[in-house]
Design a protein that fits this description.
Blueprint lengths: L2 H15 L18 E4 L6 H12 L2 E6 L5 H5 L2 E8 L2 E8 L3 H13 L4 E6 L9 H10 L1 E2 L2 E2 L4 E7 L13 H4 L3 E4 L4 H10 L4 H9 L6 E4 L4 E4 L1 H17 L5 H5 L5 H21 L1 H6 L4 H13 L2 H44 L7 H21 L5 H23 L7 H38 L3 H12 L1 H10 L2 H33 L1
Parallel strand pairs: 1-8, 1-9, 2-5, 5-8
Antiparallel strand pairs: 3-4, 6-7, 10-11
Helix pairs in contact: 1-2, 8-11, 8-14, 11-14, 13-17, 14-16, 14-17, 14-18, 15-16, 17-18, 17-20
Length: 514
């Protein structure tokens, strides 16, 4: 299965394993909860989905790469204790708590989550001295003499032997005690993840054109040439910084991340072409309406006469431009929703405030309390980056409203009017952003139609727009006549292709009979 399917399967496992009876005990006792074992090639996102699952399920996460650990850190250090058996006292070897088990308890204490995922990566690449410990861990859910707390699901990951010479094969006895999930690389699934996580548009343009270059592993005289999903993602981060610093992108630099010489050289050349396409077509200016009719027509004609590779790249870059507009809208919409919730909370505080407490003081205390709470949550590592940014946006909104109130000449009893007026500005900004996205979509579809007419490439653009989660979410909520028209055309083309295929198949059957 692909990584997205594996994610859903693990989420379902978490939901099943955390179900409880009426008496509060787990429906499936811990002893019968099979650990999940993900087996797949390196760099396809096995670790990344663990963070997503924990966040979406609202549970804790402790992650370890076991190859970084010694036997002592995994099972604890030995110590001598004394026990009496019968009438005789004996010295008995005990162990301190494993660092890994201790981290689970620490996570429970800091996050308040009594349930979670203990993720152990590269579990089948451990040293010979740690191998028995890992088998005991999978079979008995213990490290040394210390058991993993109830409510914590074990997920382990490893690479197939063809990708790592240090891999140790599990025997049937061990495999019979785990939920084994084989995972394969899949570009369409990764692309959806890439759209959500601001992957560099030149990388998407390249892989849309050459998806076979997404994941490559080939043996050579010295070892392996390889490209992985992790390599593309890390390269994307560096490309943004190199562009900001105006550092040239060379094939030597690209090879540091895409360690497959042919692909590194090919992408470097393509990167240069994309820079030229951005300059020549001025796609963001097109989407913003900054080009006049003659300039739009000239660029549409150029695209219509271009080769397929150039058309494909420009369409991906155009899709990325629309994506930026839609993502900005989504972020502003989320901020507006959070500020509306805060406005309602302020109204409630106002209705219940103590006599003699001024509205300004109430706002100041609300701002300080939220700022302090955010600081505590950050220090304890309880927030994902997106959550922290959302809370910071709300705090900033309260701060701005506080000073807006201080500057106003409003009198007691006019607080709600001021609050409605201040929030109304945010609502107006969101409406303006909605119009911007609508216009960007209309201009994008008009440009593609002017350039390519009803060619297959037009359908490709519509399909790429349909795969973008931010754009499709916007269209579902706000609508887009141009998209609906293009979608209807796409359906007609698909039906036409299906009909042609049926005719060809029928003709082949008739020829055989004749």
């Amino acid at each position: 299965m692909n990584i997205a399917q594996a994610k859903e399967e693990i989420k379902n496992t978490v939901r099943a394993y955390t179900m409880k009876k009426e008496d509060g005990t787990y429906r499936i006792p811990a002893i019968h909860q099979r650990p999940v074992l993900l087996i797949g090639p390196p760099g396809i996102g096995k670790t990344a989905i663990m963070e997503q699952i924990a966040a979406e399920c609202g549970i804790g996460l402790v992650a370890y790469t076991i190859t970084h650990h010694t036997r002592q850190s995994a099972i604890g250090l030995p110590l001598i204790d004394k026990h009496t058996f019968g009438d005789k006292e004996y010295a008995v070897t005990e162990y301190t708590m494993s660092e890994i088990v201790a981290s689970v308890y620490q996570c429970m204490e800091e996050s308040g989550c009594k349930e979670g995922i203990l993720f152990i990566d590269e579990i089948n690449c451990v040293s010979e001295t740690l191998a028995p410990t890992m088998l005991q861990f999978l079979q008995c859910k213990t490290f040394g003499s210390h058991r993993i707390p109830e409510g914590w699901i074990i997920v382990a990951a490893g690479n197939p032997p063809e990708f790592n010479k240090a891999v140790r094969e599990f025997d049937i006895v061990t495999l019979d005690r785990v939920k084994r999930i084989p995972v394969q690389e899949n570009y369409p699934v990764w692309r959806e993840y890439a759209c959500k996580n601001k992957m560099h548009p030149f990388i998407l343009a390249y892989l849309d054109l050459k998806p076979d270059r997404f994941y490559q592993i080939q043996a050579n005289a010295e070892g392996y040439d390889f490209v992985t999903a992790r390599g593309w993602e890390d390269l994307s981060r560096m490309l943004y910084l190199y562009e900001e610093l105006e550092i040239p992108v060379t094939v030597e630099f690209v090879f540091e991340y895409l360690q497959y010489p042919e692909t590194a050289a090919d992408f470097t050349g393509f990167y240069g072409l994309c820079q030229k396409y951005q300059k020549d077509y001025r796609l963001m200016d097109l989407l913003k309406g900054n080009l006049n009719k003659e300039e739009e027509q000239e660029r549409a004609e150029n695209l219509g006469q271009a080769e397929f590779d150039q058309q494909s790249a420009v369409l991906t870059l155009l899709t990325e431009g629309v994506h930026v507009f839609a993502q900005d809208y989504t972020q502003l919409e989320r901020k507006t929703e959070l500020c509306w919730e805060e406005a309602r909370r302020i109204r409630s505080l106002l209705e219940n405030k103590e006599q003699g407490c001024s509205f300004g003081r109430l706002l100041e205390e609300e701002w300080k309390n939220k700022k302090h709470a955010l600081q505590v949550q950050k220090e304890k590592g309880l927030l994902r980056l997106e959550e922290a940014q959302e809370k910071e946006a709300v705090i900033q909104w309260i701060h701005e409203f506080y000073y807006e109130w201080k500057k106003s000449s409003a009198k007691p009893g006019q607080e709600m009017e001021e609050l409605r007026e201040f929030f109304g500005k945010d609502k107006k900004k969101l409406e303006e952003k909605e119009r911007e996205v609508q216009m960007a979509l209309e201009r994008a579809f008009a440009f593609v139609e002017a350039a390519l007419g009803k060619k297959q490439e037009t359908a490709v653009f519509t399909e790429r727009i349909s795969r973008d989660p931010f754009v499709t979410a916007f269209i579902r909520k706000c609508g887009c006549p141009a998209y609906e028209k293009a979608g209807q055309l796409l359906q007609v083309q698909k039906k036409s292709e299906e009909l042609k295929k049926e005719i060809r198949e029928l003709s082949a059957v008739l020829q055989k009979k004749c």
